[in-house]
Amino acid sequence: MINKPHIKKVVCIGAGYVGGPTMAVMAEKCKGIEIKIVDLNKNKIDLWNSKDLTKLPVFEPGLSSIIKKVRGKNLFFSTDVKGAIAQADIIFISVNTPTKTYGYGAGFASDLKWVESCARTIANNANGQTIVVEKSTVPVRTAQVIKTILESNKDTNSNKSFAILSNPEFLAEGTAINDLFNPDRVLIGGEDTFAIEELSWIYEHWVDKDRIIKTNLWSSELSKLAANAFLAQRISSINAIGAICESTGADVREVKLAIGSDQRIGNKFLEAGPGFGGSCFKKDILNMVYLSKYFGLQEVSNYWEQVLILNDWQRKRISKLVVENLFGNINNKKIGILGFAFKANTNDTRESSAIDISRELMAEGAQIVIHDPQVSEEQISNDLNNHLDKTYEDKLASNGLWWTSKDYSEIFTNSDAVIILTEWEDYKNLNWTVFAKLMRKPAWIFDSRSVVDPDLINNLGIKLWRIGDGTINK
Ligand code: NAD
Ligand code: UGA
């Protein structure tokens, strides 16, 4: 049982999309607490410490202004992981937990090697009573692994003691700052009442007590996977309905309005799109599939896997219909891609549908020019060239190629088609009248994010495909 005065020193291991924004908001709201974010990646820490706030490694609306206020005051970024741990009252483990690519459970289970390595470094370097918090998304019962490592590495005559808590993060990229300032809930799972109350005390600086849910460790760990699985399932459901709309003359936006008005279903998270991306939905559902199978629940495993199968199908469906509509041939045709991030307002491309769709189009010999307001050319290059998926590599036609441009004229000039894959605000406000004229006719806009006004595009003499819209081009 932990029992000491209120927390003064917080450490977060992992300066990524979760660690950075989460701790920045905590620092802003808890001026009396000193927070250190540590990471082994020196390049990343240098960028977090960069004077030029446009260079922060994570793009997130509202983040840079908070960093400006708290960095160097009560928020610090460092590569000194051990030194920070030695002084910490509470340590958040916020490292990556991607899908395992090797050995048992490859392709499904989460790779916990980074979590385990954190537990060992904490065991060796912590002093006195330390609260260890799982912030990363992990399979159920991971807290037991952390606990076992911490307990068995404890020097018998030292004064070290640990309490393990689960405190999964529910922020979504692009809206992280708002999600952190006004969370629907904060979830704390644990056994040690004092440690639970201490973590709750931190959040109570800005979150109402009635939004802080306290559960046992395992409910907390499972709730995080379950929440993502439910959310991803909604997108695969609406995308399946969108495809039916296209074949029947219905419009998925109208269907969304009609079904979303039933409060039991609700209108949020029901936008049809090119398939969900991001670093978490796929890996967390794969993990759920793996866990279900592990516990002998084959049907449950199949059920969740189907959500992913539908997502892959949605991406292939979009690239295929582009080819079909361009007379079954896109070899040497110029195709513009608007948006490479997995959603708007982030520079993250992990599992973005744009990667698969671009590669499928290149495999057919297309020349694609890619625009994204926040994703760097270097990132796009990593995603398109260093893909480990050999089947894609094999399929790549020798004359398919890609390049990037920030200039809309270059995207549209002589393009046979422009595909909207991310719902950036900029794309809603494009001067379509000017850009449509630059395209080679017959020209197509493929809008997978319901960004354009269909009447406007049709009046410009451009052919339009819109996600889940069976009312046009019939
Ligand atoms: P990320 O890859 O952006 O960041 C993780 C960081 O941890 C990296 O910078 C890496 O260098 C660092 N790291 C790994 N091992 C380390 C070690 N032993 N010592 C020090 N640093 C180490 O990942 P992320 O997107 O921030 O996700 C982190 C976790 O949070 C994952 O489990 C993820 O599932 C979960 N999560 C992510 C989101 C999201 O929107 N990205 C939301 C909720 C939960
Ligand atoms: C998601 C969850 O929303 C967060 O609650 C969770 O904390 C996080 O995963 C995580 O565990 O990492 P995130 O992946 O950042 O957050 O972004 P989402 O807004 O959920 O979008 C995921 C994907 O679904 C995007 O590609 C998005 O475009 C797509 N999507 C989302 C749709 O196609 N339609 C929608 O209605 C909503």
Secondary-structure topology with pairs:
Blueprint: E1 9-13, H1 19-29, E2 34-38, H2 42-48, H3 63-70, E3 75-78, H4 81-87, E4 90-93, H5 113-125, E5 129-134, H6 142-152, E6 161-166, H7 176-181, E7 186-190, H8 193-203, E8 212-215, H9 217-248, H10 252-260, H11 281-294, H12 298-325, E9 334-338, H13 353-363, E10 367-371, H14 377-385, H15 390-395, E11 401-404, H16 408-412, E12 417-420, H17 425-428, H18 432-437, E13 444-447, H19 454-459, E14 463-466
This protein binds nicotinamide-adenine-dinucleotide and uridine-5'-diphosphate-glucuronic acid.
Structure commentary:
It is a single chain. With 474 residues, the chain is an alpha/beta fold. It contains 19 helices and 14 strands. The strands form two sheets. The protein has an eight-stranded mixed sheet with strand order 3-2-1-4-5-6-7-8, with helices on both faces. It has a six-stranded parallel sheet with strand order 11-10-9-12-13-14. Helix 13 links the parallel strand 9 and strand 10. Helix 1 crosses helix 3. The longest helix has 32 residues. It is globular and about 75 Å long. The model has no long low-confidence stretch (mean pLDDT 94). It binds nicotinamide-adenine-dinucleotide and uridine-5'-diphosphate-glucuronic acid. The site of uridine-5'-diphosphate-glucuronic acid has 20 residues, from helix 9.
